[in-house]
Specification:
Blueprint (H helix, E strand, L loop, with lengths): L6 H6 L5 H24 L3 H7 L7 H28 L1
Length: about 90
């Protein structure tokens, strides 16, 4: 006789870990902002300034951008995992 799986046991195997996805999002956000800052040090801001007015390079802005990217990435990762697990 085959044991029937109920919906809750199969759903638990498909859950996303909110903390792990938040950490991955934070890493992705910080690295992507860091790469944009590294591109700015190599003179890449001219092209970016054509799309966004006032886009200038400053070392402190680059570092705060990495923190901002990490915070937003963590929040986005947590919300995505939370919404996925609720559905």
């Amino acid at each position: 006789m085959v044991k029937k799986q109920n919906a809750s046991s199969s759903k638990s195997a498909l859950r996303l870990d909110e903390r792990k996805l938040a950490m991955a999002g934070a890493l992705w956000g910080a690295v992507s902002m860091g790469l944009m800052g590294a591109g700015g040090m190599m003179g890449g801001w001219g092209m970016m300034g054509g799309y966004w007015g006032g886009w200038v390079f400053a070392p402190l802005a680059w570092e705060s951008g990495m923190v901002w990217g990490a915070l937003l990435g963590a929040a986005a990762g947590y919300v995505i995992a939370w919404a996925y697990n609720k559905a």
